[in-house]
Amino acid sequence: LQVPCAPSQPVTSSESRRFTNKHSKKALKASLTLGILLGMFFVAWLPFFVTNVTQAVCSCVPASFFDVLTWLGYCNSTMNPIIYPLFMRDFKRAMGKYLPCCRRSGEPRPSAISLSMRNSNSGPRAATSLKNVL
Question: Which domain holds residue 90?
Answer without folding.
Answer: 18-98
